[in-house]
Write a structure and sequence with these properties.
Proline--tRNA ligase (chains A, B); alpha+beta; homodimer; about 35% helix; BirA Bifunctional Protein, domain 2; globular; ligase (chains A, B); Rossmann fold; proline-tRNA ligase activity (chains A, B); 14 helices; 9-stranded mixed sheet; 5-stranded mixed sheet
């Protein structure tokens, strides 16, 4: 993309309404614009990142054997009356009536609707296991929306639902989700720690929240510092050999990640914390919730009559769980975890453009030609550069590139070109090296091999 | 995808509520399930097609230089009061109040919001031309939703908005949209004819609707039979050399497609029809509207103060147009245009899976191995086969494949394998040929070259 043809409305001033850094930087980098309280338009740069995250979520869910569907934004209140949640949900549910006076709502979650799909179409245990998921806009009418996309009212969320014959199978689905979520976050350059969370009125201890450590997090968390060293790279024979069908493998990975003490404040137990964790490893910090997995057994299947014929011919209510990733909120979390005082620093896996090209002297024949050539060479390799081809001063161009956070920048100027070199700069370290344009292209291609 | 692991709830009976063939086939093929009147869940097969269409629209809009954003589902009523449309819109607009009693609505279109984004961020003519678009769920509270996704209440739509300094530039944007839409439909295997349409209360004659001829269409259309022979293939030096920046080229293509008589009943003029079109070429038929382009000048920019500083330093209200493609409705239109009594026939550009693999004797060691090998070979080429690995009778497997309409099917059985052959069948023609598994893979790969 050539910047002269793009729509990148960066702001010079820091917007006064933004209290946390991710909100400030998303506004300043022209990623979002508030449309109403807690409701945002995604401008081109923001939408590109959102779409990248969406694709990563789809890829990892597909890899785990989960199947994508798309449920509607509006739901009928009737289904929610059947489960008993219509009255329970309170003011966070946005309700309305259509022109015929029928009660409708803007979906905050979809356990009822997906259970209705299931009971309408699945009748035999032979069709299990089954996990359906979607990525769709949701709405929760927060009383005080704040922190930009981190605590908005309208948000983009992946929600998945597993249907299994037995509790054991459903717990395997739970573990499968845990592993697929860890992979998802890792590809986004995020460390999200699964923490034992509160299961609320449903009971049981089969729920984990995934938290990204950040000072601006809404949750207080307690953990053994060893937990931050756990990585999928330490598991089995590497990521690509993960066998999502193996109950044993998934259980082993789940144990590996959930045996070390890590809890949110709702489930934190000071006695266990002190007895299990040596004092020097005890940590109290704040975290941003970016996902949650949940096994809730037959709560909805019994209430809504979602049964299958079991092997013995008798009807069995299915065991279910639901599992969510906050896709739009993740963008805020990534920025909270990866920025400096100049702006955003995108991890390579989610960056909106793979690299920036800065032309120090737009209009100079040689510099223009060199930039065009770099642009074509990168594009031909399937990479997407953002070429700042405006007639601006170098300082302004650098400031914009730093603000929007592309991980790599190629700087092209007449002086360097005389020596046959351009400059390649890493946004994260600030380190630069001079190399030939061809070598710069090769290096960028190597960096993104297996990512882009 | 292996069918044993997929969720493809095909129906044996024809659903009684479905009045037109696309609705019947989408229900029978397990593509959608009604969630409420005019509101559908997209099941896996339906969602896959929806996503393919969405990607084609994104690719063609990007090619035309238009920039993707994402605006929210819910909008504040205030913006619509500013343009004067809040009261005008009537009962098709779904309105609600949030917990603080603020008037909100489920967006039916986004002229106001995109104009608000524009006026908040663009102030100079130097930032023009600019075309922003999104693909987002919309809602129109139809009094009698029917025909499945063809006339639903919640629907998925691409809506684009151009901002230009002059009327001439805006008409170039209009032509650019016309050409990009023609390319989009062509890639979907559809012939959609641009027809002069009614511009409604706004006036002017700068609007065209794109219609797919079909007996079930909601609009009566009048045209010169020559118009169905017009094709992008006859234009210039081929599709890939289209220069969207050239006013002349775009105008020439627009003229080529819009000079032959083709009008909807609102603009049909019997006198012109009879004087311009020889009797043997006059056609009266029905059509499905799958898109519309519109130039409306400064209607919104003046009402909402969307001006830029012109070259002479004075403020100028921008010239705008809006342009829509009904993405979910297109699926109905494609099926109306491409089916037979056995089921759907997907054009290669939009098929949910590139080919089916039918194993005639599941459990037979050789047949299973041959199917696995075909599956791996196709997958390795980036193609997505649907392998019917269920223990079902061949007749049932064929019926399912015919119903869901994959354009190509490879049939594998012990008898053929003894002679080293499998059978490759074209869904459209019903013709089969025997060839080696390797040759079948090569042929499928050739068919999808440049498409998949």
């Amino acid at each position: 993309m050539r910047l002269s043809r793009y729509f990148l409305p960066v702001l010079k001033e820091t917007p006064s309404e933004a209290q946390i850094v991710s909100h400030r930087l998303m506004l300043r980098a022209g990623m979002i614009k508030q449309a109403a309280a807690g409701i945002y338009s995604w401008l081109p740069l923001g939408f590109k990142v959102l779409r990248k995250l969406e694709n990563i979520v789809h890829e990892e869910q597909t890899r785990a054997g989960h199947i994508a569907i798309q449920m509607p934004i509006l739901q009928s209140a009737d289904l929610w009356r059947e489960s008993g949640r219509y009255d329970d949900y309170g003011q966070e549910m946005l309700r309305m009536q259509d022109r015929h006076g029928r009660d409708m709502l803007y979906t905050p979650t979809a356990e009822e609707l997906v259970t209705d799909i299931f009971r309408g179409h699945v009748s035999s245990y032979k069709d299990l296991p089954l996990t359906l998921y979607q990525i769709q806009w949701k709405f929760r009418d927060e009383i005080r929306p704040r922190f930009g996309v981190m605590r908005g009212r309208e948000f983009y969320m992946k929600d998945g639902y597993n249907f299994d014959l037995t509790k054991e199978d459903a717990l395997h689905a739970y573990n499968r989700h845990l592993v697929s979520y860890l992979r998802t976050y890792e590809r986004m350059g995020l460390q999200a720690i699964p923490m034992r969370a509160d299961s609320g009125p449903i009971g049981g201890d089969n729920t984990h929240e995934f938290l990204v450590l950040a000072d601006t997090g809404e949750s207080e968390v307690f953990y053994d510092s060893d937990v931050v060293n756990l990585s999928l790279a330490n598991v089995g024979n590497g990521l690509d050999s993960l066998n999502y069908d193996s109950h044993e493998d998934m259980q082993a990975i789940a144990n590996f990640f959930t045996s070390t003490y890590a809890r949110t404040d709702e489930t934190h137990d000071p006695k266990i914390f002190e007895s299990q964790v040596p004092e020097e490893r005890r940590r109290v910090a704040r975290g941003i919730e970016v996902g949650q997995i949940f096994y809730f057994g037959t709560k909805y299947s019994e209430a809504m009559g979602a049964t299958v014929q079991g092997p013995d011919g008798k009807p069995v209510p299915v065991h279910m769980g639901s599992h969510g990733i906050g896709v739009s909120r993740l963008i805020g979390a990534i920025i909270e975890a990866s920025h400096d005082d100049k702006g955003i620093i995108w991890p390579e896996g989610v960056t909106p453009f793979h690299c920036g090209i800065v032309n120090l002297k737009q209009g100079d024949e040689e510099a223009d030609a060199a930039c065009d050539k770099l642009y074509s060479a990168l594009t031909a390799l399937g990479l997407e550069p953002l070429y700042d081809d405006r007639k601006e001063r170098a300082g302004g161009k650098f400031a914009t590139m730093d603000l929007i956070g592309l991980p790599w920048r190629i700087t092209v100027g007449p002086r360097g070109l005389k020596n046959g070199v351009v400059e390649l700069t890493c946004r994260r370290t600030g380190e630069s090296e001079e190399l030939s344009p061809e070598a710069a292209v090769t290096k960028i291609a190597e960096i993104y091999e297996g990512i882009a």
